[in-house]
Design goal:
Blueprint (H helix, E strand, L loop, with lengths): L17 H23 L3 H7 L2 H13 L17 H32 L3 H5 L5 H31 L2 H5 L1 H24 L3 H18 L11 H7 L3 H14 L9 H22 L3
Helix pairs in contact: 1-6, 2-6, 3-4, 4-6, 4-8, 4-9, 4-11, 6-8, 6-12, 8-11, 8-12, 11-12
């Protein structure tokens, strides 16, 4: 008797309209996310505080230490009262990047390499895009929790609440979390050991932390360096958050929103493909 070839579980459903399929993908993504949330909610304080240490050190060392010798109009423009005020949005971007990427990567690595429960996720009868979106949403929540702690610190230093919670600021922050949690998903699916995660962190995240316009205004750089800096997605987040917090709307770099969105969509496409071909 001839055996029929294996068919991916997400294709074993009746034909649906594009709208019905998108609704199903969205609903399945929330289901995948809920599984991660049940594990995440018991560590809320730990997650919120884990990404706060580095930004606080940078704020103390650069904002209050080095910043005391930097005057407005010298290297940071005349729109900021101090260097501390200048770097605070960058610290929000930095913390959201680090935790969205690192938390998502280690979560998937733990399931793949240690608890060996990731195979159960791959057997779920859902679309690969739902698997990616569910994991990515969990990374967004991690990033928002940690960056929320940094935002609280920024508000305490500047006494400018609306600057850090306005819709434009929060929209850019969510896009940044989506980009780096997406990178975390791809990294978690591809690495073979925790040592490999360290390589990604050393050659991708740490350089981007210092080159992603968190500590300087990229417009003051030479053309060659400016080209490199503007290849980094964190640059658009830092510049966008800083503008959303302090500058008038007519000076906001609107190009940062579609660029971050395009990167997030591209990562979703790659992530869905990776999930559909994942073997472990």
């Amino acid at each position: 008797m001839n055996s029929s070839p294996l068919v991916p579980p997400w294709t074993q459903t009746p034909s649906l309209t594009p709208w019905q399929q998108s609704q199903q993908i969205y609903g399945d993504a929330l289901t995948v996310f809920w599984g991660d949330w049940l594990d995440l909610r018991v560590r809320l304080v730990q997650v919120a505080a884990s990404g706060l240490v580095s930004p606080l050190i940078y704020i103390l060392a650069f904002g209050l230490g080095l910043g005391s010798s930097i005057r407005p109009g010298s290297a940071i423009g005349e729109n900021y009262t101090s260097y501390l005020e200048f770097i605070l949005p960058g610290m929000v971007a930095l913390s959201s990047m680090a935790i969205s990427f690192g938390g998502t990567t280690f979560s998937i690595c733990g399931e793949r390499l240690f608890t060996k429960t990731f195979e159960e996720t791959l057997l779920l009868p859902v679309h690969p895009l739902s698997l990616y979106l569910g994991k990515m949403l969990a990374g967004i929540v991690r990033g928002l929790m940690t960056s929320g702690s940094v935002i609280l610190v920024a508000v305490l230093f500047t006494c400018k609440l609306w600057s850090f919670i306005n819709p434009l600021f929060l929209g850019i922050l969510i896009l940044n979390c989506a980009v780096f949690s997406g990178l975390g998903v791809l990294t978690g699916l591809s690495v073979k050991s925790l040592e490999s995660v360290g390589l990604y962190n050393n050659f991708l995240i740490i350089p981007m932390s210092f080159l992603g316009a968190t500590f300087f205004d990229p417009s003051t750089l030479p053309v060659g360096l400016k080209f490199i800096v503007y290849l980094l997605p964190l640059t658009y987040t830092s510049v966008g958050l800083r503008s959303a917090a302090y500058l008038p709307m007519d000076q906001f770099p609107w190009y940062s929103l579609p660029l971050l969105l395009v990167v997030a969509i591209a990562l979703a496409i790659v992530g869905a493909y990776q999930f559909s071909h994942q073997q472990d």
